């Protein structure tokens, strides 16, 4: 399977992707990201697998020899180690994300040159007017400031996905911000990707009568940025986390066991199908394979 040859060059960004019991989705995440990124990427996968999927994860590892795979043992300690590396930026991702349009990491770096920008979100774009998967409540797109290849907006005037303070899906941050957040939350909070994201959201909130250290950090970085054209979406077809009820669609028909058979058969998602469409949410329910 071809990979982006630029992965051998030194990258200023470390991409950290979380994966659990979804080797097929992880394979498609890696294939799509490495084929669509026009700039060097340094990828680390922090994964957790049941015995049922151990062999499939080994298969994925062999497909992507330049990717750093870390099997989860102590989630907080491993996240802290990964964000403590000598990188200027950290991009978080999850294994149900796909990339279907070529993009330059430099756009994210240019946006983050503004100290008021907290993150660059590859999964958002100006046409996103639904809150998560199709059929969810509409949301108002805030006023977007044009910066050439990307747009910026103030989260304080956004709602739902446009207002969300921290995402682990396709989002780039400055390394020092990630390190400060992880160290502030600590081992008691950061036990899974979900508790990590939820913990940061709580960390960003003000107290009833006063600002907190976390709320001041986020208030000083009130802006977010995203590309002008759709680059990435999260295909929300199944849930493997157990922290709280998920928002999957088609979970029974597209459970991890079924998708694992697709990995064995060498099936791939049809990236051309996704590239030709403009989705109105960062999360979608369209699962289209090549040759379907």
Brief rundown of the structure:
With 292 residues, this protein is α/β, with parallel strands linked by helices.
List the helices and strands and how they pair.
Elements: E1 13-20, H1 23-36, E2 42-48, H2 54-63, E3 68-71, H3 75-83, E4 89-94, E5 97-99, H4 105-112, E6 117-121, E7 145-146, E8 150-154, E9 171-174, H5 175-185, H6 193-203, H7 213-219, E10 223-227, E11 232-235, H8 256-264, H9 271-275, E12 283-284
Parallel strand pairs: 1-2, 1-4, 2-3, 6-10, 11-12
Antiparallel strand pairs: 4-9, 5-11, 6-9, 7-8, 8-10
Question: What features would you describe in this structure?
Answer:
By secondary structure, this protein is an alpha/beta fold. The chain has a single domain (5-284), classed as Alpha-Beta Complex (Spore Coat Polysaccharide Biosynthesis Protein SpsA, Chain A), CATH 3.90.550.10. It has helices at residues 23-36, 54-63, 75-83, 105-112, 175-185, 193-203, 213-219, 256-264, 271-275, and strands at 13-20, 42-48, 68-71, 89-94, 97-99, 117-121, 145-146, 150-154, 171-174, 223-227, 232-235, 283-284.
- Report Rg: 18 Å
Order of helices and strands: EHEHEHEEHEEEEHHHEEHHE
* Mean residue pLDDT: 90
The major sheet is characterized as:
9 strands, mixed
The number of distinct β-strands equals 12
**Helix/sheet category:** alpha/beta
Distance between the termini: 20 Å
Q: List low-confidence stretches.
A: 1-8, 245-252
The order of strands across the largest sheet is 3-2-1-4-9-6-10-8-7
- Per CATH, the architecture is Alpha-Beta Complex
What is the percentage of strand-forming residues? 15-25%
Count of separate structural domains = 1
CATH names the topology as Spore Coat Polysaccharide Biosynthesis Protein SpsA, Chain A
The helix content, as a percent range, equals 25-40%
């Amino acid at each position: 399977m071809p990979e982006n040859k630029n992965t051998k060059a030194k990258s200023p960004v470390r991409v950290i992707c979380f994966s659990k019991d979804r080797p097929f989705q992880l394979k498609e995440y890696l294939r799509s990201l490495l084929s669509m990124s026009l700039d060097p990427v340094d990828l680390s996968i922090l994964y957790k697998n049941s015995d049922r999927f151990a062999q499939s994860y080994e298969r994925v590892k062999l497909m992507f020899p330049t990717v750093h795979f870390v099997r989860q043992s102590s989630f907080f300690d491993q996240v802290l180690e990964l964000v403590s590396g000598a990188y200027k930026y950290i991009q978080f991702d999850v294994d149900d994300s796909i990339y279907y349009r070529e993009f330059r990491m430099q756009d994210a770096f240019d946006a983050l040159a503004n100290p008021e920008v907290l993150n660059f979100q590859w999964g958002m774009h100006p046409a996103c007017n639904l809150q998560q998967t199709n059929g969810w409540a509409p949301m108002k797109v805030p006023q977007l400031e044009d910066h050439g290849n990307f747009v910026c907006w103030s989260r304080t005037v956004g709602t739902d996905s446009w207002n969300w303070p921290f995402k682990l899906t396709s989002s780039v941050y400055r390394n020092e911000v990630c390190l400060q957040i992880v160290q502030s939350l600590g081992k008691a909070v950061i036990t899974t990707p979900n508790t990590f994201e939820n913990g940061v959201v709580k960390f960003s909130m003000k107290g009833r009568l006063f600002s907190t250290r976390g709320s001041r950090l986020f208030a000083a970085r009130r802006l977010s940025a995203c590309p002008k054209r759709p680059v990435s979406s999260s295909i929300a077809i199944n849930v493997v986390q157990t922290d709280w009820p998920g928002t999957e669609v088609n979970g029974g028909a597209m459970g991890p066991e079924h998708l694992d058979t697709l990995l064995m058969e060498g099936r791939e998602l049809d990236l051309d199908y996704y590239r030709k469409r403009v989705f109105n949410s960062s999360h979608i329910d369209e699962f289209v394979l090549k040759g379907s």
